[in-house]
Fold:
Amino acid sequence: MLLLTLCGVWQIQASLPEVTLQDIDGNSVNIAGLGKTGHPVILSFFATWCKPCMQELEAIDEVYPEWQDEYGVTVYVVSTDRAQDAHKVAPLVRGNGWDFRVLLDPNGTLQRALNVKNVPHLFVINSKGEIVYQHNAYLPGDEEKIPGYLQ
Structure:
């Protein structure tokens, strides 16, 4: 019985939820639609105050152009900063020169839908829209595991 329950939970989280967030430019982005592009997607949750998040995003930024060329991947980063701190997100991203799509989740809607408890938390979604990998926290070199899931 427990096995069936666990399998059911995985199936619920095996695809992206129907949640709409705003990006830092005010555009609406349907999260479920990210999995329907025919290309892999990385969804990385971060906060402006989180040092491991900054390390992970810097590491991904270094290899992102290669990943785009080789796998056609798009990186979306999701700020978990609350509404009163959302004004810090765009300057941080632009100041670092990151070429990621940046989404705001000030109410934690997407975090709850994907069961994200803390940051950094990264998901890889394959070209079929299935969540094929996720990890929580960051250690230098974690980004080297990601290309194996982008194919």
Notes: Residues 28 and 63 are 27 Å apart (CA to CA).
